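Limitations
The structure tokens in this dataset are predictions for the assembled complex, not deposited experimental models. Users should treat interface geometry with appropriate caution, especially where small molecules or nucleic acid strands are included. An illustrative entry is reproduced here so readers can see what is and is not provided.
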Amino acid sequence: MGNTHSVGIVEVGPRDGLQNEPELLDTSTKVEYIDRLIRAGARRIEAVSFVHPKRVPQMADAEAVMAAVPRPAGVSYIGLVLNRRGLDRAFAAGVDEVNYVVIATETFSLRNQGMGVEASLDAWHDIAAAARAAGIRVSLTVSAAFGCPFEGEVPADRVLEIVRSALATPADEIALADTIGVGVPHQVRDLAARVAEAAPGVPLRMHFHNTRNTGYANALAAVESGVRTLDASAGGIGGCPFAPAATGNIATEDLLYTLHRSGMRTGLDLEATAATGTWICERLGKTQPPAMLGRAGGFPAGAR
Amino acid sequence: MGNTHSVGIVEVGPRDGLQNEPELLDTSTKVEYIDRLIRAGARRIEAVSFVHPKRVPQMADAEAVMAAVPRPAGVSYIGLVLNRRGLDRAFAAGVDEVNYVVIATETFSLRNQGMGVEASLDAWHDIAAAARAAGIRVSLTVSAAFGCPFEGEVPADRVLEIVRSALATPADEIALADTIGVGVPHQVRDLAARVAEAAPGVPLRMHFHNTRNTGYANALAAVESGVRTLDASAGGIGGCPFAPAATGNIATEDLLYTLHRSGMRTGLDLEATAATGTWICERLGKTQPPAMLGRAGGFPAGAR
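Predicted assembly:
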């Protein structure tokens, strides 16, 4: 086996997965999805976002979801926030962590966040300080870190500049997101090494979409480069409603297959996660789930 | 960029891709598929197999396909053969290379080839010597080299034993196939290194299926481990009719995306290959092609 270390998984299906699905699920189905994920071993779950319901209708019931989810010990709920209003809602809803997004390119930031990168970084400092004062973990995600639908190439130096600028206010974790699924492993290795150097001691997380079938190679390159946490969504559902041609997150069950077969531990159960992925895809009316493990099954047992 | 070397692609869509498709295509469509692949830059094409038409009905017109394909300079056609009868048909049909398959496990070999591994190796010696005497390149593919649907784990030592035994008669190329799509990159690296040591100077090719979303990571691991040739099928069509739950080969266009973005050269055109993949999937009635590049498009140009 190549590695024997542990990899943390942030299950983002309830947030990034669902938010791009056209069919609105009711609150109880979302809560059941989260409950099934926890029973499959998920311990960090990006459960909701606190954004304007007109922009992301699927997240309009964020408070109701958070009020109804189970609260076993050791499970941490993350809420995505984009501004101070969202942060206040996240506090009130009782999340354990908040995740704030800065988009690496000006054009994409203006279109998606309604403000440029500098303004977005200003808001980060305010939000990170407030979260810290409230005793809540706060992570920063740099989106479009591997390429932008509008500007094309995103220089690694640009990503590093944003990370350095943001860390004037400490983050509990830095994440780099391949929002539109264009990255390849050498970018992952390069960025992982350079961010680790620029932000020593800050845990690094990565977030991949499988839009061009690079997501799983990128995920493995990340953990082989020292990244200890990966985002994934059970079923491989999801995308970004504001990114052209974006498709789903890497599927948690398919990621588990590669990691477990590579000798790494995640704490998640492959079969229960695959069953949950199949279940949510059925609920969403997907005839061909992006996740493949549910159809293919795990490594053959070899009973002759 | 991580690498700047050249990677050879064997386009296997016309053989491995089509043979598992339930819809039988007519000869002229197969020839058009091959012609489009050549115009997209393909130079080695596994065009047909010479097996019993009752076992693989899609390949019943192998002679007619070979009689009709274009023959531009520099294009090499490979025919898959499993026995001496197939080899004689391949000679008569005018292929440039033959590819013979030994399955790494006894159970799978008995079920698929109708003979055990030893008998299959005996046939290899006969076929390789005859091909060599006829001046035709001959390659050996070891199938199920990364795992078996019936026996489970396939020890690397077993694969090496087969390679060493086979090479009593020289091969122009050795290929390792992950026939059921269960392999992960550390297996690829391990086998690549060990086969290179056991068979110094013999070019190594690898063949991956994306059944569990590991195919592209495996392909990249292979080229990073010194493997210079990869099999892929435009559109990501294909599978193995005798392997439970096997799905398509890695898609040529999606492989090109990763390789080209990683700084490697292939000689193939990404857009023309993706268009060919989309075209063949439409011909086969696939509403959702396994290949993703045709839907997602390449790396964004970034015209602001």
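Some entries come with short summary sentences. For this one: The first helix of chain B runs from residue 13 to 19.
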